[in-house]
What does this fold into?
Amino acid sequence: QVQLVESGGGLVQPGGSLRLSCAASGFIFGVYTMGWYRQAPGKRRELVAYITKGGSTDYADEVKGRFAISRDNMKNTMTLQMNSLKPEDTAVYYCNLYPFGAKAYWGQGTQVNVSS
It folds into this structure.
């Protein structure tokens, strides 16, 4: 059974930090490029960052310099370190394959709320 389980979200003030985690199971995690995505209310889901099996990364312009994606192929986990958070970062954050997020793999995500 393929599963992607996100955790680590919460309420944080502008300028604060959060570290999100993605736990993968049911597939060979270490051979796939993975991405973090987010979806705000009323908006389309968008890519935040991706990381290849070898550790190469790229980021959406809106988060460059503030977020850092990483992975541990031995533990089948991926993280997203988010610093200098802004209200516009408020969204539900998901992990999935990249560049094509598998429809059946979308989980519940983890809510990030940046507010005073």
